[in-house]
Design brief:
The complex is a heterodimer of chains A (about 400) and B (about 55). Chain A has 13 helices and 24 strands. Chain A is of the alpha/beta class and about 400 residues long. Chain A has two domains: about 240 residues, Ribonuclease Z/Hydroxyacylglutathione hydrolase-like (Metallo-beta-lactamase, Chain A); about 140 residues, Rossmann fold. In chain A, the strands form six sheets. Chain A has a seven-stranded mixed beta sheet. In chain A, strands 17, 18, 19, 22, 23 and 24 form a six-stranded parallel beta sheet that branches. Chain A has a five-stranded mixed beta sheet with strand order 12-13-14-15-16, with no helix packed on it. In chain A, about 50% of the residues are buried. In chain B, about 0% of the residues lie in helices and about 20% in strands. Chain B is built from no helices and three strands. A three-stranded antiparallel beta sheet of chain B has the order 2-1-3, with no helix packed on it. In chain B, β1 and β2 form a beta hairpin. The chains are: A alpha/beta (about 400), B mainly beta (about 55). At the A-B interface, α6 of A face loops of B.
C-alpha cells in the first residue's frame, strides 16, 4: 500500500492524509449518494501533529499517505477534534502505530474518547482558546460545543491562516479532487445543504453564535479544511455565507409534499395538492417516500416554507415510511413552517389526526383542516385538495411579503 | 421558580433539583447560576437556555 496512496499538499505546512470512501451510501441513516471522505491532516513544523484520523477500516490508507510525508512514528502529537467514529475510529490503531508523545482533545472530547475506547493512555484536555506549539508553528483550539456533538472542536493554524473545521463546512462527497474550486458549484451547493440540513439544522441557533464568536476572535481565515468533502482553499466566504443564511432560516415559497400510498388514493390527493400549490404561485416539491429518502426530504425542507404530509391509514396508524420520515424530521427541529395533513382510509382513518398531532409537537402551524378521503378520492375531494394547495401557496406568498419583519426564522 | 431548557440538547434545569454534581445546590434559581455554568449534559453555556412553562 505504501506507494499507492499519497498525501496531498494543502499549504506550506499542511497535508491531507485522509481516506476516500467511494462506496458508502448509508451514513447512519443519511443517504450519501456521492460517497464521502474522512479527512485527516498532517501539520508539519519543527514538531509534527496529526489532526483527526479516519474511520477504522481506512487506517492503512491513512498511514500510507502519512508515510509519503514523514515516517508515521515521527509524529509527535495527535489531536482529536471530534470523537465520532468516522474521525476517531482509527485512533486506537494510529496511537499503537505511531506512539505519539501526547494526544489532545477538547475537555468534553477527553470524556467522550474514554467512553468510546480503551486507549490505555492519557488524553490531554485543551480548553477553548488554548494553543499548542509545534516549534515554528502554533495550533489554536476553538471549542464548538454541540456543533455538532458536545466534544466538537476546531483547530486553527495561524501561520497558514487555515481552519481545520472538522464537521463544520463539510459535506459527504467522494472525489479525486481535494479542493472545492475543482468541483462543480451545483454539486458543492447541494451536498453542503444536505449536510447542513441533516446534521446541523437542529443546532442552527448555535451556528449563528459560533460564526459570531469566530468573527470576534479576529483571526484571518484564508482556507477551510473540513473533515468531510473538499477543502476550501479560496472563496471561504462562500461556505460561511451559506451557513449564515441557513442558520438564519431564510425560506422560499417552496412547499414540500411528502407522502406514501397503498392504492394510489393518497398519491392522487398529493398530486392534486401539488397542482393547487403551483396554481397558487408557489413551488411544490413532491417527495413520494418509497422513492425519496428521508435525508433528501430534510434537504428539501431546509429552505421550504411549508410541509404537507400525506399518509394512508394502515391498521389504525400512520403508514411506516411516513412515520419514519416524520420521526426523522422532528429531530431536525425545522422552524417557521406552515403545514397540513391529508390521506385516504378505508374504515377508521386515524393517520391524518396522528400526523397533525406530530406536526403540532414540531410547532408547525397547521393551515386548514386535514383532508381525509374514504377509499378513493372523487372529483369533490380532489377539488378540496386543489384548494388546500392554493391555500398553502397563498399563505407562503403572504409570508414572503411580510418577510421584512418576520421572514427570518431567527437565530435565537 | 422557572425551569429552563437547553436549546441544543433539551436538558431541563429544574431549580428545585439544582445541579449538585457540579456544585449547584437544590433551590438555586436559574438566574443565580454562575456565569460559567454549562449544561451538564452537552456543555453549552447559559445563553443557550430558554424558559419553559
Amino acid at each position: 500500500m505504501a506507494d499507492s496512496f499519497r498525501a496531498v499538499k494543502v499549504t506550506d505546512h499542511v497535508y491531507w492524509v485522509g481516506a476516500i470512501d467511494w462506496g458508502i451510501r448509508d451514513f447512519h441513516g443519511y443517504a450519501t449518494h456521492r460517497g464521502s471522505t474522512y479527512n485527516a491532516y498532517l501539520v508539519v513544523g519543527e514538531k509534527t501533529a496529526l489532526i483527526d484520523t479516519v474511520k477504522a477500516p481506512f487506517v492503512e490508507e491513512l498511514l500510507a499517505r502519512i508515510g509519503t510525508v514523514v515516517p508515521p512514528e515521527r509524529i509527535d502529537y495527535v489531536v482529536s477534534n471530534h470523537a465520532e467514529m468516522d474521525h476517531s475510529g482509527g485512533l486506537p490503531a494510529v496511537i499503537a502505530a505511531i506512539r505519539p508523545e501526547q494526544v489532545f482533545a477538547s475537555t468534553m472530547g477527553v470524556k467522550a474518547l474514554r467512553e468510546h475506547f480503551r486507549l490505555g493512555r492519557e488524553v490531554t484536555a485543551m480548553k477553548d482558546g488554548e494553543s499548542l506549539r509545534l516549534g515554528n508553528l502554533t495550533l489554536s483550539f476553538v471549542e464548538a460545543r454541540m456543533l455538532h456533538w458536545p466534544d466538537s472542536m476546531m483547530t486553527y493554524l495561524a501561520e497558514d491562516k487555515t481552519l481545520l473545521s472538522n464537521d463544520a463546512f463539510g459535506m459527504h462527497l467522494a472525489s479525486s479532487e481535494r479542493f472545492a474550486d475543482e468541483i462543480e458549484d451545483g454539486v458543492l451547493a447541494e451536498e453542503a445543504a444536505k449536510y447542513y440540513a441533516n446534521i446541523l439544522l437542529p443546532l442552527s441557533p448555535l451556528v449563528g453564535r459560533l460564526l459570531e464568536k469566530v468573527g470576534k476572535l479576529g483571526i484571518e481565515i484564508e482556507m477551510i479544511a473540513p473533515s468531510h468533502g473538499p477543502i476550501w482553499r479560496r472563496e471561504v466566504e462562500k461556505p460561511v455565507g451559506w451557513y449564515a443564511k441557513w442558520a438564519a432560516g431564510e425560506t422560499s415559497n417552496k412547499a414540500v409534499v411528502m407522502y406514501d400510498t397503498m392504492w394510489q388514493s393518497t398519491a392522487t390527493m398529493a398530486r392534486a395538492i401539488a397542482e393547487g400549490i403551483a396554481a397558487g404561485g408557489a413551488s411544490a416539491k413532491m417527495m413520494p417516500l418509497r422513492a425519496a429518502h428521508r435525508s433528501d426530504v430534510a434537504t428539501e425542507l431546509l429552505d421550504a416554507g411549508a410541509l404537507v404530509i400525506g399518509s394512508p391509514t394502515l391498521n389504525n396508524g400512520v403508514f411506516p415510511t411516513v412515520a419514519d420520515a416524520l420521526s426523522y424530521l422532528k429531530g431536525l427541529k425545522p422552524r417557521g413552517l406552515i403545514g397540513a395533513a391529508f390521506g385516504s382510509y378505508g374504515w377508521s382513518g386515524e393517520a391524518v389526526g396522528q400526523i397533525e398531532e406530530a406536526m403540532e409537537a414540531m410547532k408547525v402551524e397547521l393551515v386548514g383542516e386535514g383532508i381525509k378521503v374514504k377509499y378513493v378520492p372523487d372529483e369533490e375531494s380532489l377539488s378540496r385538495c386543489l384548494s388546500a394547495g392554493r391555500g398553502i401557496a397563498e399563505r407562503l406568498s403572504a409570508k414572503a411579503q411580510g418577510r421584512g419583519d418576520s421572514g427570518l426564522r431567527g437565530a435565537g | 421558580m422557572k425551569k429552563y431548557q437547553c436549546l441544543a440538547c433539551t436538558y431541563v434545569y429544574d431549580p428545585e433539583v439544582g445541579d449538585p454534581e457540579n456544585g449547584v445546590e437544590p433551590g438555586t434559581a436559574f438566574e443565580d447560576l454562575p456565569d460559567d455554568w454549562v449544561c451538564p449534559q452537552c456543555g453549552v453555556g447559559k445563553d443557550m437556555f430558554e424558559e419553559i412553562a
